[in-house]
From TrEMBL:
Descriptive protein name: Arginase family protein
Family annotation (InterPro entries): Ureohydrolase (IPR006035), Ureohydrolase_dom_sf (IPR023696)
Family recorded in the similarity comment: Belongs to the arginase family.
GO molecular function: hydrolase activity
Enzyme Commission code: 3.5.3.-
Amino acid sequence: MMEVIVSQGRIGDRGAGMIEGAARTARALRERYGVEPRFVGTPAGPEDDDWTVSLPAAEETLSGLAQAVSASVAAGRRTVLAANTCSASLATLPAAVRAHPDCAVLWIDAHGDFNTPDTTESGYLGGMALSGACGLWESGHGAGVDPSRVVLVGARDIDPSERELLDKAGVRILAPADVTGQRVAAAVGGARVWVHIDWDVLEPGTVPADYHVPDGLAPGRIREILEAIPAADVLGLELAEFAATGDESTDARATESIMDMVAPVFATAAVR
């Protein structure tokens, strides 16, 4: 059985459309699969602030997401998170690996999100989400993700100091030119997986996102990845950073594209 959790509180959002993008994703999942979403957090406007401000401001939302994911996983459900920002994973990934310490993490993103308070140049909380979940810094929301069980897919905008941290931690990286379904499945090695997708991993113009990084993946490649992993092995799926534009036709096309890309995950309701 699937459970859809929707992050609606600001978690470092610097763009105006991502809370609505998460809500649109959740509504589309409800319409297609008949699952009533669980909303967490109260929407708030974007701010261009530093992580030292945005992290404590997001305490209530992050704690709520951790509780919701923990309950979903404990109930044996396939957990789907519609998230406004990758920062949500500071709380959700630790909750997932507490229950499934042997799972692999597929972080499908144009960025490494592996900076720390000591290396970040932008101060953006989302740029430190994966490193926090791996315990490289103390977010206050847990850790526990083994970096050697993380596969970073499609990344192409990585800071030099961030690259050093990734290499030292043993995170495997598949650049866009190297990404195929077969290679990603081989990197996972038959393990159960928790999948995180930031839509800026795509070539700009498919799903609106706040960050535009050229030379990204095509939507068909995302679907290919999810087809290559047995649906029963996908413990959770996080869909983050769809920046809704307010133009109905644009947002509807993007939502439909998202539904098509992730459809293989829902080919079966079984979770082993």
